[in-house]
Design a protein that fits this description.
mainly alpha; globular; 2 strands
């Protein structure tokens, strides 16, 4: 019992997540019974969560550094629109799969190049022009949405090659969705960066005390540039997965994913104050949020337009909870020589 109490005291967010996950499973099991535990339902979950999970992973780097990025999804949409337009213009009927694959990879390269440009713009606005991160990235969010809408007149861009859409609907071994594999690759990269390189330690130090990190010789500008680049690239990959599953690109696709990604991170204890965030907690949070999203869809009488209300309400509750947890946590000195938390 003492060990359990010590674990709960030292891992408050993990304990909250485990308790919430158990409560959610119990609730939907009681309300929907066998319908909730159908194999096809859980297979569907594996196809749905990688889109916003990749976005959340990218945003995680920014949060740990003590910054914010509201533009990443709409930046990804702009890049995806250009990528799909390129694919549609160059893939012709009867073309060999090898040629189609080459065009697809060039299209993906275009989207990722746009992500790099967008990430660098965010970095310059925040780090060199000293624009507050939230305001800078909201402004860029509007810029990317405006460019996308002007380019498409607000319509979805179709013409995604069948070879590309196949990726978003394929299961390996009959259960493991290809989008999950892509997410797992990004997850391994994130774990490696945060846990096994000096990048992770420096990032936590910057989030904990930016001035102290600067005086200790850390290249803060370089670290923030890398952080915003990772956010943009990870989010664009998430958007490209979404394009594969939906078969088109649009200016406002996944616009609610920004709120969902913030919810996931805050629920996991990775808050914009910086210096905090465990990937194990973020994984627990992703699973919990996806189960809630799927469970809500089981209620046929519940209007899908209420989803924004549900996610917004949950975010408010989670923010209140995280504030209370933070207030109860023991205060630590700001001068830190090591990362305040392990990444995993």
């Amino acid at each position: 019992m003492t060990k359990i109490k010590n674990f709960v005291r030292n891992n408050q967010y993990t304990s909250i997540l485990v308790g919430l996950l158990i409560a959610v499973l119990a609730l939907f099991s009681a309300l929907k019974g066998s319908a909730f535990w159908r194999i096809d339902l859980w297979k569907g979950m594996t196809m749905q969560f990688p889109e916003y999970a990749c976005i959340a992973l990218g945003l995680m780097f920014v949060f740990i550094s003590g910054h914010h990025d509201m533009s990443q999804v709409l930046l990804g949409n702009f890049g995806a629109i250009l990528a799909v337009q390129y694919m549609a213009a160059n893939v012709t009927e009867g073309m060999a799969n090898g040629q189609v694959a080459g065009i697809i990879f060039i299209g993906i390269g275009i989207a990722l190049a746009i992500a790099v440009v967008g990430g660098l713009i965010n970095f310059l606005l925040v780090s060199y022009l000293n624009v507050p991160p939230v305001m800078a990235t909201i402004a860029m969010q509007m810029v990317w949405k405006g460019l996308s809408t002007a380019l498409t007149k607000g319509y979805a861009v179709k013409g995604v090659p069948a070879l590309y859409t196949t990726v978003g609907h394929t299961y390996i071994g009959g259960f493991l969705a290809v989008p999950v594999v892509i997410f797992l690759v990004l997850l391994v990269i994130a774990i490696f960066l945060l846990k096994f390189t000096t990048f992770g330690e420096k990032l936590y130090m910057i989030g904990t005390n930016k001035k102290a990190a600067k005086f200790s010789g850390i290249n803060v500008h370089g670290m923030l540039a890398a952080t915003y680049l990772l956010s943009a690239i990870f989010a664009t990959i998430g958007v490209l997965i979404m394009v594969s599953t939906m078969g088109s690109a649009k200016a406002d696709y996944g616009i609610s994913y920004t709120t969902r990604a913030i919810l996931i991170l805050v629920l996991a204890g990775c808050i914009p104050d910086g210096g905090q965030g465990k990937i194990s907690n973020i994984l627990l949070s992703i699973v919990t949020v996806q189960i809630i999203a799927t469970g809500i869809n089981l209620f046929a009488n519940l209007n899908t337009y209420y989803s924004s209300l549900i996610w917004g309400g949950m975010l408010i509750v989670v923010l209140i909870m995280s504030t209370q947890v933070g207030n109860r946590a023991p205060k630590k000195a700001k001068k830190v020589k090591k990362a305040p938390q392990n990444a995993a």
